[in-house]
Amino acid sequence: MGDRTHAHTGAAGATATADPRTFLRNVVLVGHSGSGKTTLVEALAQTAGAVNRAGRVEDGATVSDYDEIERRRQRSVQLSVVPVVWGGYRINLLDAPGYADFVGELRAGLRAADAALFVVSAAQEPDAVAGAARTVWDECAAVGMPRAIVVTHLDTARTSFDEMTRICGEVLGGDDPDAVLPLYLPVHGPAGADGHAPLTGLTGLLTWRVLDYSSGERREESPDENGQAPLREARNRLIEGIIAQSEDETLMDRYLAGADIDVETLLGDLERAVARGGFHPVLAAAPAAEGARQGVGTVELLDLITGGLPAPRERPLPRVTPLHGARPPALTCDPDGPLLAEVVKTSSDPYVGRMSLVRVFSGTLRPDDTVHVFGHGLDEPGRETLPFHESEVRVGALSSPFGAQQRPLTACVAGDLACVAKLGDAGTGDTLSGSDLPLLMEPWAAPEALLPLAVRAHGKADEDKLSQGLARLVAEDPTLRLEQNQDTHQVVLWCLGEAHQDVALDRLRSHYGVRVDAVPHKVALRETFAAPAGGRGRHVKQSGGHGQYAICEIDVEPLPPGSGVEFVDKVVGGAVPRQFVPSVEKGVRAQASRGVAAGYPLVDVRVTLRDGKSHSVDSSDAAFQTAGALALREAAAGTRIQLLEPVAEVRVLVPDEYVGPVMSDLSGRRGRVVGTEQSGPGRTLVRAEVPELEIGRYAVDLRSLTHGTGRFDRAYARHEPMPPRLAERIREQQETSPVGV
Questions:
Q1: Do 615 and 576 meet the contact criterion of CB atoms below 8 Å apart?
Q2: 152 and 161 in contact (C-beta within 8 Å)?
Q3: What's the predicted TM-score (pTM) here?
Q4: Could you read off the pLDDT of 548-583 as tens digits, one per residue?
Q5: CA 83 to CA 8: how far, in whole Å?
């Protein structure tokens, strides 16, 4: 690929005139936070002529990180699109955040793309590759995404391309050592005073050309005759790996027979091997030096994207279900086929309003078309099933995103991406299809938000805007989960991590003008009777005129967990008139909901009304409600009341080497490990039951404990009695704080 000649013309908004299914590429850049993805996008955009000068993350001047939050934090927090044109190909470069808290944006990028550039920093420690980088790699593997590897930061002292390639092969290559092999080898210049030799060029192992960038312009030359032996050894291993992974048996026979194989044939097999997901070529890249037009390896990387990564028509479409009993159509990436598109991201524009980033899989999307919108949200474990929704929506203006810019489009064909303004109530994950053939795409899995953030309005003005601001925030970021907790009376935003929390609060304030205060998250506790007890409720008031008179006697006994509150009427002889028995029950249940000891709802008891007294004139519904409540409070005062805490079933998936520390940590949280089982090579699933009071920050703590490699899910199991010492401490806290912990 290094000896191809390209026409480096065309602005980012240009489109190829040939078949778009062939001359389109959608590539998402993924990798660990700080690996250099955004800097690489800038370098590729500069090389392709889309920008005159590459911006720097430190200066807040990059095309990708255009949001004020990203510029302020110097970190990508959302998916962005930077289209470029290279050699007649339109390439949509999608820059995905690398930090684990924004994995939802990563998954959206994987849905929109057909291949991934996995960016690793040569300055990273091996543990970082085996940790957070491996987690991102597994995300790609889970959706069958073809991947190439790009090694960055080779201009940093004490870095080695060979060493990082070896680490990637061991950690990311699986069982096949030849699944991760270099396509180019770096060329270094003379060592400086610090002993570090700068990266000045590359040697193409397939093309057998040296690509020299030392002058600031890319020049091609033949390899030096001295030192060709290791190059030939690397070349032979690369060719064997490509042919083996492409499963081209005929070509393998020719190669083993000693026949010369031309570069174009090898490139065809390279594309097949990468598209199959079994081979991952490795390249080196560096941003352009001051005054230079091209960064080292950027031309080769663009060549790989256009010549070695799959086109949209070569990737299978997500599974589709026809609606209303229609026959399933045979869909392909065909601009003339039935319309099938999906909203992969939702955002807000201060001037246009709601914007939807749409990937078209089949057909062509045009402004003013009427489309069928069908949605079910994303497939998130733990989230309540969202109601299906469908509507007919008229498509607004189409545009091609270039960072923050929007460039008008007349149409978006199959395989391409576009932003659509004001697409009704369509949200992330919703399917767009033709009105004559409504379709529904299988959703991608959204990460489960497991870190709670309780918020309240900062002031009266914020109170009025809070509901709308939170609703817009959740619509823009579907990985957030909004909960209105009826037990603790808190508004809770469930997030993926602390950085996710910070960005959510920042976005609420800067985008929607809503200031909120974070408050301690409360866990919904319960109360129950530890032993049977009786109580007498006497509500008698005579103050002239119509009085109040009601007396009732009850027995209370504990029930098995999950029984709720039962009410039994055993009054005989009309001691409590029949019309007032429901009043007693209503009073008992109202008091039970308010609690009888520490202010938490009372559960798992049977209340038996056994006797009482009434007055022919002064008894009333309200009086017997009050008497019922008083009787329950008196019964509680005569026995021990247990506090019940919620217990969660927790499943933790970790690499084998972290099983011991994770089990020890769970035990320290009053957890009970109930079992372990193997879950794939080198990974173990730990199942435990843990009080919810102990896992409020487990999403953060587990990430720290396992270096970003562990993940977990949780589900409510039951309420259990709390240890007496802890219960007493909580009762003391309740004397000075509202309900909840």
A1: no
A2: no
A3: 0.87
A4: 999 999 999 999 998 999 999 999 988 999 999 999
A5: 14
